[in-house]
UAS domain-containing protein (Chaetomium thermophilum), 511 residues
Amino acid sequence: MTNREGFDLGQLSASQQEALQQYTDVTGQEIKDAIPLLERSQWNVQIAVSKFFDGEGPDLFAEAQAAQNNIPRAAARVENLHEALIMDVGNRPARPRQPRTEPAPRVVPQSPHVYRSPFLVTLLFAPFRMGYSILSRVLGSILFIFSLLPRSLRARFLSSSIAKGLRRTDGRRLTLPKETAQRFKREFEEEYGPNEVPFFEGGHAQALDTAKRDLKFLLTVLISPEHDDTDSFVRGTLLSSEVVNFMNDPANNIIVWGGNVLDSEAYQVSREYGCTKFPFSCVVCLTPKEGSTRMGIVKRLVGPMTPEAYISGIQNAINKYGPDLNAVRAERAAQEMARTLREQQDSAYERSLALDREKARQKREAAAAAAAAEQQAREKAEAAARLQRLRQQWREWRATTIPSEPDPTIKDAVRLALNMPASSGAGRIVRRFSSQTTLEELYAFVECYDLLKDASKKLTEKPEGYEHHYRFQISSVMPRETFEPSNAVTIGEKMGRGGSLVVEDMPDDDE
């Protein structure tokens, strides 16, 4: 089946054709443009519609897929014919191969234990110690004098054995591995001048751990100042520009550790690594085929040699074991990238979860606030309605307690003209009151005037717990004076035989 644009829709599955139909019905986009967009959206109609209307941003799924595809993989293991012949014909397990390299021991110098002899023994041997100290100083002075002479003259006065014996009496102080490395580097520069050999400033165990962690080659160089070939090897080979540049080349991944066998740590390293001849160098690296954490001695360089032979020996070891280390680096990089990808995914999930929680919290708080406002408004309306009922009940009760207008024959009656507010619609009222009527009763008359017009008075009880407040005030016109609702002051005292009063509404308060 081919559409008018020339696309063969028969190559699409039923679900893809249905997704295409739904997408074109919603967007009206041409099929030639719709199919690539659906492919980029993994045939998800919702995602494709969102991209069509909102614009197509970066494809996070494609980026994650590309990042996962670009993860460096470890190199495949290739067996040669020799390794294949190790297996039996009947597919029986092969005999375990012997390690091709010697294991590289991790040398940690032991701290010297200080032994303190008893006081009596110390006192007994004090003369011997004093004599030994004097003899050592004399021999040291003689050695110092001979050290100022050229090497050729020193050989005439001291034999090799005497010189060696005197050199052993110099008493090198035991220090920490880092201090020992610094001392070796300082003495090396004092003896052979400034140089660019990248000696590791730390103990041999620390250098071995660094090479193991960073997947580098550890070049251990042991020198003996008493050996005749040491000076020529250092000046002609170790300090040559070719060897120095080779050591400093980052592509070779070399860590150089040097030691003087007169130091305790270097002496222990020479014993553990089987050093029988000086100058001595060896290359150590991780051997993953023999063990994931195994460090092996892959090359020994013993005796004097030219710079070319020295570099060639180290380069052969790098060429032989470098691919294995590259495979481990690739595997570690893949693991690190996978871990980073998982952390990013977990972080994105946590952020999304925190955002959803925040939205849910805001929604709950908004709902709680709306419910509280609604409850407060309902309570306020109920309180206002209850107050209105109590106010009406009080007016009905108070209307039954107001006395009737005095008889015209009573001479001390007070005739008042009350100008009622416009809101009441009562207009101007003229009424006679007893001269003993209090101002509070006058206020009650005005409050209940609309109920007094009703001839039938309801029998109502006074509401309990209610305190009535008047929402108006009564004032005289000339001179102007405002009267408060008082039970102690009568209208006869204030108005005499009569007067004109004005009733004014006051603004409502919170009641």
Q: What stands out?
A: The domain at 177-330 is CATH 3.40.30.10 (Glutaredoxin). The chain is about 50% helix and 10% strand. The beta strands are 102-103, 217-223, 254-260, 280-286, 295-302, 414-419, 428-433, 472-476, 481-483, 498-505. The chain has four domains: 1-55, 119-168, 177-330, 400-505.
